């Protein structure tokens, strides 16, 4: 199956960049489905098999991306770095460096593949099934796409409001 996320990654990513990270401690506790923008919490068509339990892919919302950002910073950035280049703190202290998460053009594995790696791990990377719930794993996947797109965004990707504020 393919999660049919709408193509709002770039503007969401730019918004994320614009809003910065100053209130992350607050965002960490935020419920992605509490946002008025996401109510009611309808699902995209299609489900994925998560172990023996089908788990629906959460709808892509700004709140989901913010949740993904804070989870990524907490659980992944120590190794993969905030940019995804693989030179996080743990790696600087001697842990083997992971490959960059995004190809130079911002592309990466399919959403399902990324979700599987987060769930079960890969090679020397341990899985996070016990530590990160399925929705939050999808939130991280969505954020990874936004991060990849944000690193290859051009002025053409910006909204008129963002252009007005841009240097
Ligand atoms: C302890 C360090 C560490 C942490 C924490 C960690 N990873 Fe990894 N990750 C690695 C290493 C090392 C690899 C390469 C593993 C291998 O193939 O042997 C890897 C591989 C990956 C890959 C596959 C990359 C590829 O091109 O094959 C993805 C995707 C990934 N990690 C995502 C994540 C996400 C998302 C998180 C947070 C939920 C995370 N990782 C947390 C170290 C880490």
From TrEMBL:
The keyword Signal applies. Residues 63-148 form the Cytochrome c domain. One of its GO terms (molecular function) is metal ion binding. Residues 1-18 form the signal peptide. Keywords: Heme, Iron, Metal-binding, Signal. It comes from the Bacteria. It holds the Pfam family Cytochrome_CBB3. This is Cytochrome c. It comes from Komagataeibacter melaceti. The lineage of its organism: Bacteria, Pseudomonadati, Pseudomonadota, Alphaproteobacteria, Acetobacterales.
């Amino acid at each position: 199956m393919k999660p049919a996320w709408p193509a709002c990654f770039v503007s969401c990513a730019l918004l994320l960049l614009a809003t910065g990270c100053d209130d992350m401690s607050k965002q960490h506790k935020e419920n992605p489905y509490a946002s008025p923008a996401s109510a009611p919490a309808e699902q995209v068509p299609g489900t994925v098999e998560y172990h023996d339990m089908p788990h629906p892919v959460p709808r892509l919302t700004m709140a989901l991306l913010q949740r993904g950002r804070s989870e990524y910073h907490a659980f992944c950035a120590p190794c993969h770095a905030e940019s995804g280049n693989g030179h996080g703190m743990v790696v600087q202290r001697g842990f083997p460096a992971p490959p960059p998460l995004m190809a130079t053009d911002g592309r990466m594995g399919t959403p399902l593949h990324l979700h599987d790696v987060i769930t079960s791990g890969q090679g020397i990377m341990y899985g996070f099934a016990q530590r990160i719930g399925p929705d939050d794993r999808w939130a991280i996947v969505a954020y990874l796409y936004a991060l990849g797109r944000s690193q290859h965004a051009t002025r053409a990707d910006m909204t008129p409001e963002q252009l007005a504020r841009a240097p």
